[in-house]
Amino acid sequence: MKSTAKWTAIVVTCSNKALTPSLQQALKFRQSKGYINEEAIILTVEDPKDDVGSGGATINALLTVIEYISAKKGYTVINPDVLKDASILILHVGRTYCYDTTTRPLITLPAEYVAPEYDDLVYNLDFIIRIIGERFAVKSGPGVWISSTEYILSIPEGTDIPWKECEVAGVTVPSTMKFCKDHGVYKLDNEGIVQDILYQKGADELGPCQRRDGSVPVVVGLIYLNRNVAEKLLSFYIKPPLDACCYMGIDNGQPPIKLSLFFDVLLPMLTDITEEDFVSGNRSASYGKPSSVVDESTACMRQARRILWRELHGYRIQSCMIESGSFHYLNDSVTEYKKCQQDSPFKSYNFKDVVWKNVVHSAIEPKSTKLSDDSIVINSSVRGNVCIGNKTIVSHSCLHGRIDVARDCIISGVKIENIKDDETVEIAEDIVLQGFNIKLKTFPVKQNVFTVHGRFDNIKAPTWKTTSTFCNTPWLLFLNRTGILREDLWGTEVDNDDQTFLTAKLFPVFHATSPVGLKEILWMQGTVDDDEQKSILKRWRSSWRLSFEEILAFTDSEKEFQYKKDLFYEVGCYQIEQALNNKENVGFRKLYNTASREGYTQAIFNILDKVASKTDSPGVAARTLANIGDLLGSMAENKGGLRSGPAANNAWRQAFQLLEDDQLEAGVEALAAVRTKWLNRPDLLVRAARHYEGAAQILIRKAVMTAKKYMDHDKADVPKIGQWVRADCPARIDLAGGWSDTPPITYEHGGAVTIAALLINGKRPIGARVRRTEEPVIKLEIVGAQGDKNTVVCSELSHLRDYCQPHAAGALLKSAFICTDVIDLNSNISLSEQLKTNYGGGFEMQSWSNLPQGSGLGTSSILAGAVIGALLRAAGKCCTSNSLVHAVLYLEQLLTTGGGWQDQVGGLMGGFQFGYSDAKLPLEVKTIPIEVAPETVTAFNKRLCLIYTGKTRLARNLLQDVIRNWYARNPYIVQTEDSLVSIAGDCKDALMKGDLDKAGQIIDKYWELKKRMAPGSEPDRVTELISLLRPHVNGVTLAGAGGGGFMFVLMKEETSQDLIRKLLSKKGLEDVEIYDAELDNQGLTVYFETD
């Protein structure tokens, strides 16, 4: 995003008092989301009286904001000095707009922000503020900018704004005289100083304004005032009768006066205007048109203009001509509205963080909806057998059922639901169908009213004209078809010239005995016929009806704003439900951030609770609970501490136990009950989020445990008592694809990893041995890397119950007995009886690893495979390596440590392996041995260098962050996962071809992808090492999750370890240790020890 002005204040003026709260709320929400600088004062100022004019509204807004800033700075009186270095933007909201019930600035556009922190609709207002800030205010410096919101200024990307230092500036663009007959035109001198402003003049009168190319400078509606001029305008609040255009004068009892910004405030600054013409009103009055009426009001205005002339005539207006710009006024024609939507002039700015789309924040049922490619749908819910024709625009609507919308229609604010199965609602071509929430002072119930007219109707044209139409049909034909009389629409008191669509009482609001609304609208537009009894006509005639003009006047702006916001979240909740149940790669963190700011979190909690409790998939339930954690984290707004942390508070224990016991619905309900008590402080919100992530982990474990389906074993000879069964395993390094094997990613996205098994210093560094003993106990001995031993004896079932606590002594070994069903922990039979009955005695087990803790070489998972392999054989059973891979997955869920499958694939299978899993449950891991030529293996061994960085990994914290980002479906993370799976296949292919240089490049790319998945996984020391080795290596990465442990490199040259040792010594890194490593082709070996 380009640099932009830091606004001191943004003030919106509004003549419609009912609209001010909605505008204020919209602006404050946008500021809270970062679209407006946070220090800016946001004010929505209603005009002190009706129709004080744009000039009066400007002075009142300036007074209000300066008073506000003065008070904020500690002054007790209004102090104009606060204008020094202040940048103020005043935006004028104009008249009611036919095609958006919340006025022109809040017209929603078919656009979205790219990768935003918040989910939101894009408004005209967003672009207006941004364009003035980025293109103009950054050049002008401090001062006051004043802008209408009824136009769009289009400036091509890269256009330089020809700004000149000045007292007052008027932005302009070249236009045609034909276009300007309905607008204002500047007359400029050779220096670009404004000499005159001509309004709605013909070509003859605009001749003096013509430029050499025949164009004329159109009045855009964007004005700049420097500090001196702004102070002068501010001073009018104490100068009667000018004070009567601001609230202080009104509060002092002054009758209001109307001032035009251009023809009262700016006109005295023009060089061609004389004092006599200005003061007399020959050029002022009603937008530059002279008035012959002389009364008290006229005298007051002349006195006001004398002051304006005296105070302002010394200033000059400098034009700011944007030669390549264009001006678009949002009038009341359907054509202009459709142009704004289908080919918005705002597109010319080519903002890099904005993407224009035909479907924006809408819930569309894809299987049953036919949506034309060139139609537009914004903030709408479309479900059922809906057909939307070419170039039709649907906004803020619910279309549910069998609905056919023909081409070139506008559907706005319409709710069509509960249609009978055998009925079809048909909207004819070129129809404008709208819904309005109205509020009547004499009728307490708020009503929703439908209106309809045609795209080609001139809504202001008298109906007696032959060209005048309704629903694109001549009025006479419409009246004849329906039986409606002119007296029904206008009575007898309305003059012929005033009998227009705007004034026709066409639209039924309520009926004494029958519902009215949609059917009558369809009848009027011609897709529903009346019956022989003229039932529709009779019901229509006996209804209480309003004209379009009255409906616009009675529109409940606050209700309209709320309706659109409610629909926004209704759509969001539907999208959440569909994405979770259908396992789509769509994230909602930006919606959660928005809901937290706007107070809509409960609606989202409700839908998430519903999905979590009703699904039969533990994977869907886990993702949903994690999403609730994300929503809680959003509510904390980064104020409650780190997201990672403990999740074992007693308050949540009962809910967790229900999930453990497979009582999902009750567990979700219990979680929600606890949650309600943890919502009132940021720290509690973060802690609640941690517990929801803990709940999700329970369900992730259950999802991964579905891998038990692929665990099987056969019977084998039972070794004699005292016979040691030994299992030895190599370590492993991940060459490409890691993180894609991590649950839940592996069963939601699908994973693929290319792995190599390694001998370390010529040995298999990981192993276990098991023997049967006569004594019916289980004796466990854990041997550390330094030869230290820890012995645990289990003589009762209770001694095994801490198997699920990873830090309990011998927890991994205990889990092996549970995982393999050697021991039934839930049995009523004692441990000793189970052992004697089934195995004729007990077991003694030893395990070891000769690698440093946190090595990143897959130690714990590979050790689990060794332990299970040895235990099964000692118990008279055997299984395949593939079965062991799934057994380790299952064991690690019992142990509650989680983890993926790449470690055991590499350590148990041996050689180069390509492991993969599909995006489904039950979780199944498949492996393909990579056939690599012997000479390639030899070269690989000579070019491989394994380096211990001396820094222990913190994989657990990295894992939590990765899973959190995956569950949020961060698009960057989803894309990275795609790349991880892809390069795993590329690496396999490179090895098969013997292309180690290519494999090294892939390993390099792999490390970059790992860092994307887990930012912070490259400590400073590792960065230093990589930089040191970079000239000598083809590829480098940390093993496993990163963060520390072992680093392996594929050197450019063979046998380069001596070179690396010299580099490390020279750099003072002698504590960084190099290990001998080479490919192991065997993998797990299980055998009987001999004396």
Automatic annotation (TrEMBL):
<dbReference type="InterPro" id="IPR006204">
    <property type="entry name" value="GHMP_kinase_N_dom"/>
</dbReference>
<comment type="similarity">
    <text>Belongs to the GHMP kinase family.</text>
</comment>
<keyword id="KW-0067">ATP-binding</keyword>
<dbReference type="InterPro" id="IPR036554">
    <property type="entry name" value="GHMP_kinase_C_sf"/>
</dbReference>
<dbReference type="InterPro" id="IPR052203">
    <property type="entry name" value="GHMP_Kinase-Related"/>
</dbReference>
<dbReference type="Pfam" id="PF07959">
    <property type="entry name" value="Fucose_pyrophosphorylase"/>
</dbReference>
<keyword id="KW-0547">Nucleotide-binding</keyword>
<keyword id="KW-0418">Kinase</keyword>
<feature type="domain" description="GHMP kinase N-terminal">
    <location>
        <begin position="834"/>
        <end position="911"/>
    </location>
</feature>
<protein>
    <recommendedName>
        <fullName>Fucokinase</fullName>
    </recommendedName>
</protein>
<dbReference type="InterPro" id="IPR020568">
    <property type="entry name" value="Ribosomal_Su5_D2-typ_SF"/>
</dbReference>
<dbReference type="InterPro" id="IPR013750">
    <property type="entry name" value="GHMP_kinase_C_dom"/>
</dbReference>
<dbReference type="GO" id="GO:0050201">
    <property type="term" value="F:fucokinase activity"/>
</dbReference>
<dbReference type="GO" id="GO:0005524">
    <property type="term" value="F:ATP binding"/>
</dbReference>
<dbReference type="Pfam" id="PF08544">
    <property type="entry name" value="GHMP_kinases_C"/>
</dbReference>
<feature type="domain" description="GHMP kinase C-terminal">
    <location>
        <begin position="989"/>
        <end position="1063"/>
    </location>
</feature>
<keyword id="KW-0808">Transferase</keyword>
<feature type="domain" description="GDP-fucose pyrophosphorylase">
    <location>
        <begin position="81"/>
        <end position="511"/>
    </location>
</feature>
<dbReference type="Pfam" id="PF00288">
    <property type="entry name" value="GHMP_kinases_N"/>
</dbReference>
<dbReference type="InterPro" id="IPR012887">
    <property type="entry name" value="GDP_fucose_pyrophosphorylase"/>
</dbReference>
<dbReference type="GO" id="GO:0042352">
    <property type="term" value="P:GDP-L-fucose salvage"/>
</dbReference>
